[in-house]
Amino acid sequence: MWRYSAAMPIRDGEARVSIGEGMTPLTEAPELAAAAGVARLWVKDEGINPTASFKARGLCMAVTRAKALGLPGVCVPTAGNAGIALAAYAAAARMPARVYAPRTTPPPILGSIRAYGAELQLVDGHIGDAGKATMAFATETGFFNVATLREPYRVEGMKTMGYEIAESFGWRNLPDAIVYPTGGGEGTIGIWKAFQEMIEWGWLAMDTPLPRMVVAQAAGCAPLVRAFKERADHATPWVNPETHASGLRVPAPLGDRLVLRALKESRGAAFATDESTIRANTFRIASTCGIDAAPEGGAALGVADMLVSEGVVGRDARVVIFNTGSGASYRW
Q1: What is the mean pLDDT of residues 197-221?
Q2: CATH 3.40.50.1100 domain range(s) in the chain
Q3: Which fold has domain 55-152?
Q4: Beta bridge partners of residue 81, listed in sequence order
């Protein structure tokens, strides 16, 4: 992702904490396109990042800046993948790290966090409860709290996904819609930020039609979908969040206003899909594309199947869906 370093908050000559993140493949899936009723469909597979999810991009940037600023350590609440990424990049930076995770986090994810040498604290409840514990620890110790949107750098890493989409499409004729599985919101926010920057800086022509941003959530935890349907500018917390797609189990996303603004500005949409559909579509991605999809990717495909019937795009549309992590992290 450092091919775009000129557009990132890093000084010339500043050391980068990098283990090979970014430039993930964009795989065309004709069978999935036909089933969704669109002309073409691609899967962007973030699961092949070094820490097996899109979180590598944001935590790479956050740890790079924390190291440059001389901070004593880093900490994060996680639904899973952010914890792995922080643990890995902190290890590469030789910085202490503490991760707070719900006890219900998939065991393979917890095992990976421990393997990278981070101090892991399990909490009862959901990621919001982990967030409270993280904030208290950061206040007490001076560790850099890199929770989603609690600092400015993670989104700067996430926005490189938008640059990569544009570059993959030759900086013109961008896809008509991007379906992004959204929990905390930093991925959706980062991609839309990238498109705004590319227009401003002349990377894209001023009259380039930008993709519609489409949020995919789980029916058991869909605060952004509910807010979008109510035409609200913020989301209210979801009571009793339940979904096996742990990255989507975020009942009160801090980035709600920015996500909803991106949907409005892009003329986008937000939909939720149920657990059985998520499971079935996770398998469909793997069995038709050879991509080891995470359940969040299954949610994205489920929402892609709704786009034509809901009037978001026409049958001539070109659609990109994101698989944000590796399915291996969820199997035990």
Answers
A1: 97
A2: 2-53+154-330, 55-152
A3: Rossmann fold (3.40.50)
A4: none
